[in-house]
Amino acid sequence: MKHNDRVGLIIFTDKIEKFIPPRKGQQHVLRVIREALYFKPKNKGTDIEGALKYLDSVTTRRAVTFIISDFFAKEFKKPLSVANKRHDCIAITITDPREMELPKTGIIELTDAETGASFLVDTSSAKVRKTYSEKSARKIEDRLRMFGSIGVDHIDVRTDRPYIDELIKFFAMRKRRI
After folding, report:
1. Per-residue pLDDT tens over the stretch 31-81
2. What is the pLDDT of residue 113?
3. pLDDT given at position 45
4. What's the rounded Cα separation, in Å, for the pair 12 and 27?
5. Is the CB of residue 55 less than 8 Å from the CB of residue 82?
6. CA distance 61 to 156
7. Distance (Å, rounded) from C-alpha 1 to C-alpha 9?
8. How many angstroms separate the Cα of 158 from the Cα of each of 62, 79, 151?
9. What pLDDT does residue 99 have?
10. For residue 158, what are the β-bridge partners?
């Protein structure tokens, strides 16, 4: 609002669920914030490639584009690389610490939020917990390496910490770089 920039919103799951075209003005920005906070998705799944193609089809100008996701979706490196050449893409990753380490609580039932598949896991097994944390760490490292290889800036937001510190640090780094 301070710089009178246009602000828009694309909310997606495995489909585009909501699109608010970029506009200027305080009322419009407040509408975008309201939609982002209170929107209830109808579908499950994540199609980052589809969202990036949609972005390309509805934007005529270069835009600063924030993509908020855990980025644990099927292959999206090439579409993100293409989008980053046209726009200034910034990946905001959402990480829950429970996705990185399993607590030692015995047998628990886990449900995949996107597919609905459920399965039992014996978290009392040190081997199971170690394998889980190693795979989680590897997925995060792969994600960071991929962002670096295609030149996409990223902000890692954790659900157990205030996000504002990460945002301030990121924008200070971008300001120094420019």
Report:
1. 999 999 999 999 988 999 999 999 999 998 899 999 999 898 888 999 999
2. 78
3. 86
4. 23
5. no
6. 27
7. 15
8. 29, 25, 22
9. 85
10. 95
Burial (CB < 10 A; 0-12, 13-18, 19+), residue 38, is exposed
What domains are there in the chain, each with its CATH number?
A: 44-97+140-177 (3.40.50)
Q: Over the stretch 84-107, which tens digit does the pLDDT of each residue have?
A: 999 999 999 998 888 889 889 999
Bridge partner list, 66: 90
Alpha helices in the chain (DSSP H): 26-38, 48-58, 77-86, 126-150, 163-177
Give φ, ψ of 126 to 5 degrees: -60, -35
Which of residues 34 and 3 earns the better pLDDT score? 34
Following DSSP, what letter does each residue of 108-131 receive, concatenated? Answer: EEEE-TTT--EEEEETT-HHHHHH
